[in-house]
Amino acid sequence: MADGRVIEGVYLSTAFDLHALYGHALTPHAGTIRLRHPHEIDDPSAIRFALSWRPADDAFDPYPNLRLAHSIAAGVDSIINCPSLPKDALVARVRDPDQGDMLAGFAAWHVIWHHRNMRHHIVHEAKHEWARLIPSIMKPPRDTPVGILGFGLMGRAIARAVTAMGFPVVAAARSAPAEDVPGVRFESGEGAALRVAEQAAILINVLPLTQETRGLLNLDFFNRMPEGAALIQLGRGEHLVEADLLRALD
Fold first, then answer.
1. pTM of the model
2. In this structure, is residue 2 part of a structural domain?
3. Does residue 1 belong to any structural domain of this protein?
């Protein structure tokens, strides 16, 4: 800071030792920013921000002057749903194009896995068998719609990767982007996710976790999907009702 004061922060996580992960990156900025573990802090009122991931329910209680809670990743649900988060605190997250591209590659790999029925080949390879699939059961990419639930940074990156391979995309978004996105149609508003599910041969979930999306992937949702459709669940575990998934698979 211009006046020479150090901005005081705290690591808050039940999952990781955040100092071990990020302390080295902050060392060059020690003259302006100082982050410590809760047990190292003498004056909690001096803390202005927290670097956080999956904080405990009471993690923010000791810090009356906290102004910012920063996630270490793109997700912020564990922070905004934390009961002790001050109502006037800002919440920030990471927007990393490389992270989006990495997830897009993972999603594209699964799209190809399902589209080309790679499990069939893996099973027969293990048996040292040559078992060709009947060509007629494999539709070309242009006839295999891919649904994407969520069209933020991750959803956009996945759409770019999937449309580049020739798959048409239908995406559920709060509102359709103002600009046209080549190869992508949009469903928005109430019931958008269900309408996408009804159209998709392969469905990819990258929605954020909210009260509206918690438990979204349930039996009613699965019953709306076309026969033989595949789900690529890249969202939060709380999106999925596992018992309903098992019933749908049966």
1. 0.78
2. no
3. no
